[in-house]
Write a structure and sequence with these properties.
With 267 residues, the protein is an alpha/beta fold. It is built from twelve helices and eight strands. Helix 2 crosses helix 3 and helix 4 (129-145) runs antiparallel to helix 7.
Length: 267
């Protein structure tokens, strides 16, 4: 794959992609409301060993915007099409955060021959029935009022004060969430409200690591552990971090990635 940042048309949409490094391909898929910059603190280290592919998911960042609905199957197909257009090798490792982890899981389930390993951090594979109405109401609010509303309340769960060791990092996260496209987040929220990934989780056949954050109020460890339990043979760990592991505790996350993605596992 050619190094650099550019826009690529694939699967009927245009995505901004960034490729760095050499070696086996590792795909990083950001969280809802995030962008490919969500992984910035860990990319320089990973690029010493991997060819790292990041991209703005359909409807997020500087990729093509969406109006209407999204589906997890389409988002997994987006990645498969990107890999084809970019000329990626036959098999890749995939890693995602939250909704990005759901995309990685769906990709691994739908394209098992293309997936050598999977890492899912704080996977957002659905919401309890009692939370669906609130999430749908939030989607309506996003389209009406924008992404900045109730932002501090939400960040108190995903980026609590105990993890705000570097005020500059927190302020950048806060600002980026306020600037995110509200229609893209609304579409992803509606998708999440109706998501049931039980069948996909059961079809995962590659080595899998599922990580939960001790301080993650959005996806607390018991819920993440329940997701991991549905993936055959998955390893599960709780780390002293939060929802945005790459931004909050990059060194800690890097240790887990590099330990799990041993050379024999990504060959």
């Amino acid at each position: 794959m050619q190094a650099g940042t550019r826009w690529v048309e694939a699967n009927g949409t245009v995505s901004r992609v960034a490729v760095e490094g050499t070696g086996p391909v590792l795909v990083l898929i950001h969280e809802m409301g995030g962008t490919l910059e969500s992984w910035e603190p860990i990319v320089p280290t990973l690029a010493r060993r991997f060819q790292v592919l990041r991209y703005d998911v359909r409807g997020a960042g500087l990729s093509q915007k969406v109006r209407g609905t999204l589906s997890i199957g389409t988002l997994a197909q987006d990645l498969a099409a990107l890999l084809h257009v970019l000329g990626a090798p036959p098999r890749v490792a995939v890693m995602g955060c939250a909704v990005g982890a759901a995309i990685a899981i769906q990709f691994a389930a739908d394209f098992p021959d293309r997936t050598v390993a999977l890492i899912a951090t704080s996977p957002a594979t659905g919401v309890p029935a009692e939370r669906r109405a609130a999430l749908l109401a939030r989607a309506d609010e996003l389209e009406r009022d924008g992404a900045a509303g109730h932002l501090d309340e939400r960040l108190a769960r995903s980026f609590p004060p105990v993890l705000r060791r570097d005020p500059a990092v927190f302020e950048q996260v806060r600002a980026s969430r306020a600037a995110a496209d509200p229609f893209g987040i609304a579409a992803a929220s509606r998708m999440l409200a109706g998501l049931d990934m039980g069948a996909a989780l059961a079809r995962i056949g590659c080595p899998t690591l599922v990580l939960a954050g001790e301080h993650d109020g959005d996806r607390p460890p018991p819920g993440v552990q329940a997701v991991a339990a549905q993936i055959p043979g998955a390893a599960f760990k709780v780390l002293p971090t939060g929802h945005f592991m790459a931004l909050q505790t990059p060194e800690l996350l890097l240790r887990e990635i590099e330990s799990f993605l041993a050379p024999e596992r990504t060959a």
